[in-house]
Amino acid sequence: MLMETEFKRLFAIEFTKHYKQLQKDFIIDDHDRSISITALSVQIFTVPTLARQLIEEGNVIKVIVGTVMDLLREHLDDNNRFFFLGYNSDKFARIQVIFHDLRYILISKPSIWTEELRREFIEGFKVFLGLLKCMQGMEEVKRQFGQHIAVEPEWEAGFSLQIQLRHILAMFQDWCSSDDEILLLAFEECHKALMQCNNQPFHREATDYYMCKHILHVRPYKVSQEPVSIHLPISRLLAGLYVLLCRTGAVERLDDSESFDRTQLAEHPLRCVVLAAQVSAEMWRRNGLSLVSQVYYYQDVKCRDEMYDKDILMLQIAASKMDPNHFLMLVLLRFELFDYFNGSCSSKDQDELTQWNRLTEEMLYLLIVIIGERYVPGVSQVTKEDVTMREVIHLLCIEPMAHSSLVKGLPENESHETGLETVITKVATFKKPGVSGHGLYGLKKERLVEFNPFFYHYSRSQHSKAEESQKKRRTQEGNDKALRPPVPPAFCLAFSSIVRLLCCDIIIHVLRRVLQRAAEDRSTHWTEAMIQRALHLIGQALIEEKTQLEHSNVEEVTFDFSLKARRIGSEHGKSVFLLLSKIKAVPSLEAQNDMVKWVLQMFEIVKCLREKSSPTASMSMDTTKPEESAQDKEKAERKRKAEAAKLHRQKIMAQMSEMQKNFIESNKMLYENMPESGSQGEPVTSTDSCLMEHRELCVAIGPHRGSSPAEREVLTCILCQEEQEVVAQAPAMVLTACVQRSTVLTQCRGKIPTNRADGTGTSYPLFMPPELAVGTHTGSCGHVMHATCWQKYFEAVQNMTRNRLHAELIIDLENGEYLCPLCKSLCNTVVPLIPFETLTFNYENAEIIGQHLTLPRWIQIISARIKGLKSVTQDNDCNTEGSSVDGDTGLCGEGQSDFRSILSYGVQEPRKFSDSIAEMLVVCATTVHRVGLQTAPNELCPHVPVMAWNTCAFTIQAIENILQEEGKPLFGSLQNRQLAGLKAIVQFSAAQRLKSSQAVIQRHFHDMLGVLLPGMGRKNSPSLLEVDFFHLLVGLVLSIPALYQEEAVDLQPSAVSSAYNHLHILHLVTMAHMLQVLISSKDFPAVAGEETEEARAASELYTTVWLIPDVSGSSVAERVNRGIEPFLRCAALFFSCLTGVHPPEELSSTAVTSQGQMEALCSYLALPSNVFQLFQDHRDTVTPLMQRWSGSPAVTKVMKGNIQTVRYPRRRNRLIDLPEDYSALLNQASHFQCPKSTDDDRKHPTLCLFCGAMLCSQSSCCLSQLDGDDVGACTAHAATCGAGVGMFLRIRECEIVLMASKTRGSTYPAPYLDDYGETDPHLGRGNPLHLCPERYKKLNQLWQQHCILEEIARSLEVVNVMFAFEWQML
To answer: Where are the compositionally biased (Polar residues) regions (predicted)?
Structure first.
């Protein structure tokens, strides 16, 4: 029906006729407005033609306002004013909705006025004034004396009504301004309504007040003793209409015979301003917070344009019409400072003196505002754009601000617009944000001259910040600190007489009194803020006089402030000018010296202008030279002092240097033997250069292994600040660490293997699948503590945290979590620091052994040793009585010699650790085992050493992945703390075998070796394609020393034996991994052209495996080299941390080519640069092994194409690709339908950033069970996709959610920014959003560096959580 224009018109008429009844029914009802017929008003009242017709024919303004009056009539008191004590907030909120209809009617002002429209509009305006009359003077307050107020009075209702009327008042004024006749009628009606208001009457007759030979006849009134109201809508509306009269020129048609009592017009606004001043002076403390809140909103951006600003406007109107002396006397009277400045009262009460000082400050500030605030269209020749520009300038003078902060600081019009966009480019420059924070606008330098330190829209804190900021800026630029008053625009004719306030007798008297008190330096009678305001006023006066003198003849200028200021006071007092000179010497006013100098300089300029001499010449003769000479003297004095201080410092430093040299000379032995002291918590090394004679041998393993540096680490405990050297036999020092499950490297997201703690029926955790479905990562912030200090700290944290509200959200005490004492990183264990083992490597012996210990011989010896150990174990189990005899019998002859022959290549005693280190090894290993397998703590579990090796391997793989992703070199990129943490983890994993059963370690080695030597291990050994070879390498290298264990004596391999063990293991594992890469690769091109030796070897190997001849060897070589490079990089990191041998310089630079990097890796790992040469060198050994490897059923299926396997190099995981425009995500979310729900309820579509799955969060339809608990879709998804860790984008809220477990999570800014470089949480501002690649990259790093748990803990530590959010329901 409303689609047809005629029907819509008829419906609008009927709707208006029954409007009152419809609204009353809606108020009584409990239904939402959205389903009420009253909601149709927006479709009717916003049509301009219909709105005009409804005003003319149905007087809809009168109907709407009358409806409001009828509904609010119950809240009227005996004086016909509103009193909202005990009001119904729900009903009141429904009544306020009616004001929206009044805004709809007034939304577009008419361009053509008819007589009918004029008549009905004025009629409606009168009814609206009736509503305002009920608000004028409502909710009066009276200052409380004696005791504090018992019950806080109701005030929110009055201000919510004021906020609703704010735009309506502006729109009424806008309508009135469009027609002079309407404007005059409205002004007369408004004035008449104001005269009819009988609130706040005077209780005493008028009295004469005398000051400086001037008499003011006015009724006495004290704000501090009598009732006063902050609500004066009619007075403020009258002020607004008067300015419009001035702006349109219609003020000339105003009937001046109508005797406006200017004093009466200014009375109520002045009382209101004085009330705010007295509250600021803390005179109303006993009236409670309700009054403080009212004054705050009175001056706040939400209300000030129709409250505080209009009061200032009314005072300016009064000042322009009244005698300036009388106006100032009225101001002094209402501020209750009349007697104080008249010299007829004094006090010794400190509180009273403080109040007088604060009131004087506020009174001077009000005068500054009345005289200086001219940026109102109609008061001066400025536009709305100029007004907005000035607001922005003063906001940016506080500090550079974000766009949203600027918008919040500016008043909105009825269309919720601030006008910022039209002016911001004129006054500010935009600085784009980095990876955090937001874009900021900074003020252009040329706009700084417009800064007014006493800008009337500054709050007290803003004023202080702006003043401090500008003084700091001026100091940095080498200027003085004087914050001069800006040159204001000229007043319009109607307001031009306001400037007379600056040169009247009373202002001179007030300024003289203020400066006199400062000159006498009686600290209780003046404040620096008072002097600052007085100087600003003087500056304003001098600028005004200078401006007038420059634009007119001296004879025409009546403004004579400078002349009066130089006159001697009537009461034998000094002139203002002389007092200014005197206060320069007051020590406590040193901060104002620059301002005083500027004011005195302005006096001289004005004097020159009056004498008609050239200001420039005169200044250079009379003022500039003295000033310059004074400044030069001051600068010379400062320079002299600076030079003296510099010489003094140099002398002291020379003395200290001499003392240091003497101390070193007398303590030579100490300095030769002791290492340098280190920084807090970081390893410090003192290396003797002679120990690096084999520096050129940058080889980590094999007979040419380089030497481990003999480093001594002296560390400082971050808790007790005591230093200690890291020694195996010393008390343990530990690194904070966090162990967590991770899917960062997974190749099969969402498929997490089921962990069996007993190890039966599954190859994990002994064999890591090549998909790296889930790993155990151990990270450390690198901060060092004594083990005993950590234990005490951890106990203290447990005791303290148990008493903290919602502490379980931050740290899980049951799982041993705590925050690092220094950096507050989340930790759940400690890693003991174990120094490098000092090994003496005999290179000649290594060469001799190498001739005998070839790979076939090594395999033979290891096999014999394993069989022998197995036989011994079985014999021990079968016959404990004759174990030694049976053992010898079982190993007779050649078996006996092979069983022992492993020992003949070099053994030594194993390392001994202190009990403290041994205890910490167990603590760390137990945590890794518990977290990695999600099982109960059990230090005797056979998987404990396996999980230690696994976390070592996975952590190295994660670090290599990050370095490769960021394009950083393998060595030299990690921070010292990160490197220290990695070394500690590798050394901890290597030492783990010493704390475990040697039989268990031997069995693990036997099983792992079975992958490389099929048929030797257990029956269900995984095939070549079912293991990750780096995990296997770490396990084999760290477990092989257990083979050297003898029953009667503890042994471990010597350095040479270890070097060969590592070499042969690495060669075997590398060849197996190369074959793994080849088997998983297909579709190589045919051979083309002549090929290199490496290409021929690669082609030959491929033909051997796949039985396909004539393939491109170069393609095969390139694919294999790329496939095994991550493995070799991880191996290099591992052996570097295990042996301490320095890597080649090529691995510490990104400038080296990929070929050069590969050659450096091979050199460091004792591999041939052509890795295919391994198969040639060990042909006899590897050929039968290759046949066994390829003959595995799993390998056969892959080669036949029946199943897929992991391709190498593995895919490097990143967060999913997000659209550049956020609206694309919103569109995607709008089409999202929950798979488990058919209703149309609003859902919360949430995007997993790991895999891209769209989930239905915070909805009962998608609840599922996880470990016996009900959890939401996101929590359940995180358990399978991220091993409990999740990163989700809530699309409709535009925020990231980080999750770490069922009970912990936090929000994080989304990586989408608007054009102003700001995020938009909950899409509150609605600006177009675009993806910020830098921020998304930071999120990706947060995930890959395993910092999500840490970020959650830090954010929860900062935020004081009162009501815990149920993250598990997300």
So the answer is: 614-623
